[in-house]
Design goal:
Helices cover about 45% and strands about 15% of the residues. With about 400 residues, it is of the alpha/beta class.
Length: about 400
């Protein structure tokens, strides 16, 4: 599967700072010190109802991670999946009387268009669950043969008790895990499971549903968590720098994936930092596909809204915060974009060297994009009030805002 084209990232004078970021597993800030190539895996969409602003906020956060690393003169090996076969996708296809493959392809194409418009840097590897199946089957077989998985009515389940480190990503108690498992795709009430939290690795073929040859597993399709594990291990290996996604993925998805990988490899941890973005609300409730209270990037674009304004609206909120999309959020972003563009179109301005360092420091400090925006606002205000004599400053500001914040002025 192909991703989307990369926008050029301007080179800046000097060098960025190492990233300090909040790690869900430890509950505090960690300073990441990748090698020459920083490795990151971000969980992708299930391709229906794409791309809503909750998606956009999540991928914006991890786009900033890439930009911070690139500014330190590192390369970035970024991997993202597409869950292009799953129960919610099949249910939506049935509801809308459309072939599930066609629905997945249509929504994935729309997602690519939105990511391109928002100047999100693409992954090096963009892998669909279906194309990953040949690599998933051997992993499930290995877990089963090692006694870490078991069969139940033809389905294969992972035993969470096989991982002594299970629970160290989300740090939730059993009751909270069981509740979230039921809400987020698990089946804790199914009779016959060794532990209610055990997740499915391989679902045996159901009548009327797609299935693939699973070798000794029989025909079926993969569970949600093992999909990402297979892709991440294949392209990044263990101990990669960041596992990212929305905060609703900490449990069960990232918890289960970590356990799968740790049992398979005997290594711990799967990722050096588990990083989670907050949720976006509309009319007082979290945007969700089940509630249908979604605002789509494509809808805003088709209404003529500049994608740079959408990006500024996202950047105005700290990536870990839960926040609400309102008309005022949009109006503030449009006004800021107008001010910034007017500022960099002038022939000169105050020196921009200190501003570049302020942006770098803000982003290195747990991706504090609101602080970075405030720094640019101050430079813009100073230029409006008293001008300046540095003829190169507007160009430096424009390049810095593009390279570090992904906003084209």
């Amino acid at each position: 599967m192909y991703a989307w084209p990369a926008s050029e990232v301007p080179a800046l004078p000097g060098q960025g700072r190492d990233l300090r970021i909040h790690d869900t597993a430890t509950g505090g800030l960690v300073t990441l010190d990748p090698g020459p190539v920083a490795r990151i895996y971000v969980c992708g969409i299930t391709p229906y109802d794409a791309t809503h602003l909750g998606h956009a906020a999540t991928y914006n956060a991890f786009d900033l991670v890439q930009r911070v690393w690139l500014d330190t003169k590192r390369q970035v090996h970024y991997v993202q999946n597409v869950t292009d076969v799953d129960d919610p996708l099949l249910e939506r296809a049935e509801r809308d009387n459309i072939d599930w493959v066609a629905l997945a392809e249509k929504e994935t194409a729309l997602f690519r268009e939105d990511m391109t418009a928002l100047r999100m840097l693409p992954p090096r590897h963009y892998i669909g669950a279906v194309e990953a199946i040949p690599g998933i089957v051997p992993l499930v077989e290995r877990l089963r043969d090692a006694g870490a998985a078991y069969e139940l009515d033809g389905d294969i389940y992972f035993s969470v008790e096989s991982d002594p480190n299970f629970g160290k990503v989300s740090n939730l108690d059993a009751a909270a895990m069981r509740l979230l498992s039921a809400e987020r795709g698990g089946d804790p009430e199914r009779a016959g499971k060794k532990n209610p939290l055990d997740p499915m690795l391989w679902m045996a073929a159901r009548p009327g549903e797609p299935s693939w040859d699973g070798g000794s597993l029989g025909r079926g399709r993969p569970g949600w968590h093992i999909e990402c594990v297979a892709i991440a291990l294949d392209h990044l290996g263990m101990g990669f720098d960041v596992q990212g996604g929305g905060s609703d993925l900490a449990f069960p998805h990232h918890e289960m994936g970590a356990s799968h990988a740790q049992v398979l490899t005997g290594e711990f941890p799967m990722a050096k930092a588990y990083v989670h973005a907050g949720m976006v609300a509309l009319h007082g409730e979290k945007m969700s596909k089940s509630k249908g209270n979604l605002v789509f990037v494509s809808q805003l674009r088709h209404e003529g809204l500049d994608p740079a304004a959408i990006r500024l609206a996202l950047l105005a909120h700290h990536y870990r915060a839960d926040w609400e999309w309102t008309d005022q959020v949009l109006q503030d972003a449009l006004a800021r974009l107008d001010r910034w563009r007017a500022a960099v179109s002038r022939p000169d301005g105050p020196s921009a060297e200190a501003l570049v360092e302020e942006i770098r420091e803000a982003l290195a400090n747990d991706l504090d994009a609101p602080a970075a925006l405030a720094a640019v606002d101050r430079w813009t205000a100073a230029q409006e009030e008293s001008g300046g004599t540095d003829t190169g400053a507007p160009g430096v500001v424009s390049r810095a805002v593009d390279a570090l914040l992904g906003v084209a002025l």
